Amino acid sequence: MRLGVRIGQGCARLLDEKMRGLDCKRLELDEIWGFIGKKMAHVKECDDPTLGDVWTFCAIDADTKLVPAFRVSSTRDHYNTNAFLRDLASRLNNRVQISTDAMNAYEEAIEFAFGSEVDYAQIVKSYASEDRRYENPERKYSPTRITASQKNWIQGSPDPNLVSTSYVERLNASTRLHVRRLSRLTLAFSKKKENFEAAVVLNFASHNFVKTHRSLKMTPAMAAGVTRDFWSYGDLVEAVS
Question: What gap in Å lies between CA 97 and CA 105, rounded to an integer?
Fold first, then answer.
């Protein structure tokens, strides 16, 4: 685990250095839930304050599939949302269109980070009653069905045909698949925050630099012009060591 943390911290430095001056045009934002040590309902006052819920904010470029920024935090409050959006805005060269879900903190944080230089819309989804999942035991652990969705204009002039969170939701699914600490039913959850952060950053570094995207036929970093070459995991480890 010490090796994993060291490589993860190196990947964090690499991403911070490389994810600069980006020409993204369309970004999708979301958060993915997990927990460290124990779920929040079981945390006691005497426990380590890092235990409990953990949220990973992430952004994805819909065109290149690059993940330009992410943030691991214990809450989805205004402070962490603002910090995530300020970091994201600092990495971009140009005006972008942003799509998110209807989380309240996004609207204020995006205005604070981008000012008037952004086109922003939300996609609001309505879900079936939670009780319906338990009518069929086979669906007990399945996601709740979406019954309707609506696109809401928030700021600027977003293209309504491009308002979507499909790519970032697919990224969340891939993240849960590759980072077993984020599996919903697992004994592989992280016991320490630093281990969780290292696993997440290693996943996003490999996503950007190592994994060839099936439709792009290249890595997201190549598609975004961050690097010209395919990287192996050995190249990644060598770059951060």
Answer: 18
CA–CA gap between residue 94 and residue 197 (Å, rounded): 29
Which pair of tokens denotes residue 99?
């799509």
Of 149 and 25, the one with more pLDDT = 25
Count of residues making up the chain: 241
Q: Name every residue whose Cβ is closer than 8 Å to that of residue 7 and which is 6 or more positions away in sequence.
A: 198, 202, 237, 240, 241
- For 8-22, what is each residue's pLDDT tens digit? 999 999 999 999 999
Checking 173-180 for CB contacts under 8 A at 24+ apart, the result is 174/207, 175/32, 175/56, 175/58, 175/200, 175/203, 176/32, 178/203, 179/203
> What residues have CB less than 8 Å from 201, skipping those under 6 apart?
8, 9, 11, 12, 15, 70
Q: What is the pTM of this model?
A: 0.91
